[in-house]
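User: I've been trying to design a sequence by hand for this structure and keep getting stuck. Would you show me what you'd pick, starting by listing the structure so we're on the same page?

Assistant: Good idea, let's start from the same input. This is the structure you sent:
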């Protein structure tokens, strides 16, 4: 039979309540008693059940993880890596992660996660942009929220964010240093803080380097940031702006789509068109040629989100802490050096 708290209490000659308080590291118990109980715990190799501990602390030790279903894709596993980072850290912190995806057209009556309805989580991590309705739903249940790769424009929240602005600057500087000045930018919804930050880094760097910013080189009208929309965006800019020599894509998925459009026109990357992405997803290594991109430490985003959530739960106070995760350029073979005249 498995060991119980009663076995530890009997062996240590204390009450079960005392054992429970020692396991919670409660300072009300004298150091002498603490040591006696801990010696028995070690000798018996006792591990308190998570359920029992949760009843004592009035916590489930579950954390919800929510993202939109179009972000949880096998072909574009950016958010999958973030989820894995949260899962790894949750194990170390003795929490469980419960994953739930929601549609873009979120309906509270139809799509509210079961773990919220049943009050079975202590907090919720939200990855990527989601409808305001799900945020309101979580807040109505008085659950702490940590955002990853997104922070709502209204309200004050804790969030783990990518240094998108710096990444946008690095990508643009890299193209400029290779002789490119006619640089297009393709992206999705500029209301998304990540895309906005990357675009601002691109625009400011162009202006700082004395290169005239041309809004005709910018395509940000796509509904999302997939390979398909990258294909469309590349067609939109290149069919009207033949002088463009390089494309800065707001993410790797769109960059891969743009590369396909370039190939379909009988052109080559980077000989005829240079391209740089953002995120450094797994597929970026296997494109032809391998894609130069901005590396985002995706697992680290998830790890930091979980650490921030645990911090919120321990302090039991509302926090608006922001964690900014740095990025770096990964130089591969999709950018050509132009001869500077």
């Amino acid at each position: 039979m498995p060991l119980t708290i009663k076995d530890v209490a009997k062996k240590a000659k204390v009450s079960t309540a005392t054992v429970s308080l020692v396991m919670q590291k409660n300072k009300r118990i004298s150091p002498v008693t603490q040591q006696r109980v801990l010696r028995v715990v070690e000798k018996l190799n006792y591990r308190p059940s998570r359920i029992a501990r949760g009843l004592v602390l009035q916590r489930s030790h579950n954390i919800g993880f929510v993202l939109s279903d179009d972000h949880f894709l096998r072909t574009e596993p950016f958010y999958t890596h973030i989820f894995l980072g949260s899962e790894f850290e949750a194990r170390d912190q003795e929490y469980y992660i419960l994953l739930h995806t929601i549609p873009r057209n979120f309906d509270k009556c139809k799509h509210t996660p079961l773990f919220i309805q049943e009050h079975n989580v202590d907090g919720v991590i939200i990855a990527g942009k989601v409808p305001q309705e799900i945020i309101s739903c979580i807040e109505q249940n008085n659950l702490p929220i940590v955002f990853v790769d997104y922070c709502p424009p209204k309200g004050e929240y804790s969030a783990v964010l990518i240094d998108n602005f710096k990444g946008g600057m690095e990508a643009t500087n890299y193209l400029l240093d290779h002789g490119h000045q006619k640089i297009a930018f393709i992206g999705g919804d500029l209301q998304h803080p990540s895309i906005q930050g990357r675009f601002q880094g691109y625009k400011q760097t162009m202006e700082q380097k004395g290169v005239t910013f041309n809004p005709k080189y910018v395509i940000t009208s796509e509904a999302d940031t997939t390979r398909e929309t990258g294909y469309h965006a590349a067609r939109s800019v290149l069919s009207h702006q033949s002088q463009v020599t390089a494309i800065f894509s707001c993410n790797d998925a769109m960059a891969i789509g743009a590369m396909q459009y370039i190939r379909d026109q009988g052109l080559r990357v980077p000989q005829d068109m240079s391209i740089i992405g953002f995120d450094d997803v797994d597929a970026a290594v296997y494109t032809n040629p391998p894609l130069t991109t901005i590396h985002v430490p995706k697992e680290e985003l998830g790890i930091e989100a979980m650490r921030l959530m645990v911090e919120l739960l321990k302090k039991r106070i509302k926090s608006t802490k922001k964690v900014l995760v740095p990025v770096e350029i990964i130089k591969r073979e999709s950018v050509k050096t132009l001869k500077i005249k």
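That's my pick for every position. To get oriented when you compare it with your attempt: The chain is about 40% helix and 15% strand. The mean pLDDT is 89.
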